[in-house]
Specification:
Restrct_endonuc-II-like, Endonuclease, Chain A, three-stranded parallel sheet, single chain, binds zinc ion, DNA mismatch endonuclease Vsr, mainly alpha
Length: about 110
């Protein structure tokens, strides 16, 4: 199962696109909390049911080179036996190059 999450709506941790709205802070806090909780429940249910889960953050797809790298990493992951992978811009564009091992390391959520 491959999810593509918007960094803002799904609250990608430590991501520059995970901005905080300046108005109605209580509304947004509740909204984001609900989204995060739902994502966690869905991911846990899928994993327990035997599905493999990939999360591709929006920030990994914003630039063409990053999107290509994300697609390559997803392709490698699909052929691997790893259960989870998480790809954000940090995983597709790390200083030492994007590798499946680095991306999988980030998946231990
Ligand atoms: Zn992000």
């Amino acid at each position: 199962m491959v999810f593509v999450h918007g960094c803002f709506w799904h609250r990608h941790e430590s991501c520059r696109y995970t901005t905080k709205p300046s108005t109605r802070p209580e509304f947004w806090a509740a909204k984001f909390e609900t989204n995060i909780a739902r994502d966690s429940v869905v991911r846990t249910m899928l994993l327990k049911a035997g599905w493999r889960v990939a999360i591709v953050w929006e920030c990994a797809l914003r630039k063409p080179d990053d999107a290509k790298q994300a697609a390559d990493l997803i392709s490698d992951w699909l052929l691997s036996d790893q259960v989870q992978i998480v790809l954000g811009e940090r995983e597709v564009r790390p200083p030492n190059g994007g590798t499946l091992e680095n991306a999988i390391r980030c998946a231990s959520i």
